[in-house]
Amino acid sequence: MQRFSAFSLFRHGLGRHQDWKPQWRKASPKPAYDAIIVGGGGHGLGAAYYLAKAYGIRNVAVLEKGWIGGGNTGRNTTIIRSNYLFDESAALYDHALKLWEGLSQELNYNVMFSQRGVMMLAHNIHDVQVLRRHVHANRINGVESEWLTPEQAKEFCPPLNIDPNIRYPVLGATLQRRGGTARHDAVAWGYARAADALGVDIIENCEVTGIKRDAKGEVAGVETTRGFIASKRIGVSAAGHTSVVLDMAHVRLPLESYPLQALVSEPVKPIFPCVVMSNTIHAYMSQSDKGELVIGAGTDAYTSYTQRGGLHIATHTLEAICELFPQFRRMRMLRNWGGIVDVTPDRSPIIAKTPVKGLYVNCGWGTGGFKATPGAAHLFAHTMARDEPHPINAPFTIERFRDGFLIDEAAAAAVAH
Amino acid sequence: MLVINCPYCGERPELEFSYGGQAHIARPLKPAELGDEEWNAYLYLRANPKGHHAERWRHIHGCARFFNAVRDTRTDHFVATYKIGEPVPEGSRT
C-alpha cells in the first residue's frame, strides 16, 4: 500500500501526479473464503478490515451488489454523536466515537472527522425535560454533554433564531462537543484501501442471490451473480435490504425498511459552525467543507425500497429550518435523495449471531448508522471471529424482542427518528 | 406525493391518509396460551417484502375509515385498494 503523507504528496507532485496507483485492487471472486461480508458500505468494509487487522482472518471477501459506499454510506448526513439515553446505547455509540477519534491515523486516510459539536434543540417543556434527563444520563455514563440556555445556544451557533415568538421557539439545547461530522465517502474508501492492503478481496457488482446451507443446516456459501462462493462464516451488513438477504436463509428479523431523505443546498462560504438537530420538527443540519448545507428530513410513513421519499416530508423540514434560520430562506437546494433504512421496533440495532450457525447479522441501524460505523464494524468483526458477541454488543441480540429486553431508544427522543 | 384510491371516497392525495402497517395480522384468540415465540411474531415480526405488500391505510382527513391496500414497495405503485374484511384481490397477491 502506498502510504499518504505530506512527503508522498510532494514527491508525486514532482511527477505531475501521474503515477498514483489505484487505492485497492479490482478483485474477482475466489472459490472459497474464510469469511464473507455481504454489503460493501462503511459497516461491511470496516468489519472486513477489523477481521483482518484485529482478529487475523485475512482470507475475506466483501460482496457488494453495486459500488462500495453507494448505499446509505453515501446517502446520510454524516452526523456523529454518542449522547444516547440508555447505558447499552451509550457504551455502543461512545465505543464508535472513540474509534472515530483515531480513525484517520489508523487508516492513514483523512476521513475529515471534525468534532465541531452537536447541538440538539428543545422546543417545548417536554423537550426540555427529556433532553435534560439525557444530559444527566450521558454524564453518568461518562459521555460529556451539557445544557445550554437559548442565549448560550445562539452564542455557539450564531445563525440560530431564538425569537420566542416563532412556531418552534428554542427553549434550550444540549451540546456534545466531541460530536461532529466526517466525510462519508472517505470512510468507505479508507476502510476499503486498508482492508485491501491486508488481503481482503473487495468484489463489486456481485449481488448475493441465495444463501446455501449444508446438511446440518449450517451456512456453506452464497450464490451470487458472479457464481457460487463457499464460506462457513457469512456476515450480512446490508442495511435496508437485510430482510431481503436473510429471507434467503429463512431467517425472519423484526425489521421494516423505510425511505429517509436528505438534501443539500448550493455551496456558500462558511456560516454554520456546528451540527444542529431538532427531533421535534425532524430537522438536522450542518455545513460540509465544500460549503453546502446538508439537511436531513424524517422518514416516510410507509415501508418502501424506492430510495425516494415524499416531497411533503422534505417540505416540512425546510419550513422548520427557514424559521429557525431565516437567513437561509432564499437558498436553493441542489440535490435531494432517499436512502432505505432498516428500523427495529425499539430503534436500536442488532449485531448478533442468527439461529443459523455461521450466519451473522449487523442491521437495524435505522436512521443513525453512519455515526456507529467504526464501532459497529469492530464489534461485528469480533462477533464473527469469536462466534460470540463482544460485551458491548451482547445486549443487541435478535432474541431481545422475544425475551422482553428491549433497548427502547424509540421513546427516548434524543434519537432522530 | 402518492395518489391513493380510497374505496369509499375515490382518489385523494397521500396527505389525507395515515399509514397503518402490515394488514391481515389477526389478534390472538387465546392470548393466555401464547408462548414467547408467538408473542414475538405477533408483536414484532413484519413482512417487509421488496415487492407486493398488503397494508392498512386510514383516510384520516376524509371519511376517517380504515381500508387495505396492496402496494409494490419497489415503485410505491398501488396495485389495489379494498375494504376491511375483504380478501386480498386476485392478481395482487403478496
Task: Describe this structure as you would to a colleague.
The complex is a heterodimer of chains A (417) and B (94). By secondary structure, chain A is α/β, with parallel strands linked by helices. In chain A, 28% of the residues lie in helices and 22% in strands. In chain A, the strands form four sheets. Chain A has an eight-stranded mixed β-sheet with strand order 5-6-4-14-15-16-13-17. In chain A, strands 8-2-1-12-19-18 form a six-stranded mixed β-sheet. A three-stranded antiparallel β-sheet of chain A has the order 9-10-11, with no helix packed on it. In chain A, helix 3 (87-101) crosses helix 10. The model of chain A is unreliable at 413-417 (pLDDT under 50). Chain B is mainly beta and 94 residues long. The two termini of chain B are 23 Å apart. Chain B has one helix spanning 36-43, and strands spanning 3-6, 10-13, 18-22, 52-58, 66-72, 77-83. The mean pLDDT of chain B is 94. In chain B, strand 5 and strand 6 form a beta hairpin.
Percent range for helical residues of chain A? 25-40%
Overall geometric form of chain B: globular
Topology pattern of chain A, helix = H, strand = E: HEHEEHHEHEHEEHEEEEEHEEEEHEEEHH
Number of separate helices of chain B:
1
Overall pLDDT of chain A, averaged? 95
Cα-based radius of gyration of chain B, to the nearest Å: 15 Å
| Greatest chain-chain contact | A-B, 23 and 24 residues
The computed structural class of chain A is alpha/beta
Strand line-up in the sheet with most strands of chain A:
5-6-4-14-15-16-13-17
> Unreliable stretches of chain B, pLDDT < 50, 5 or more residues?
none
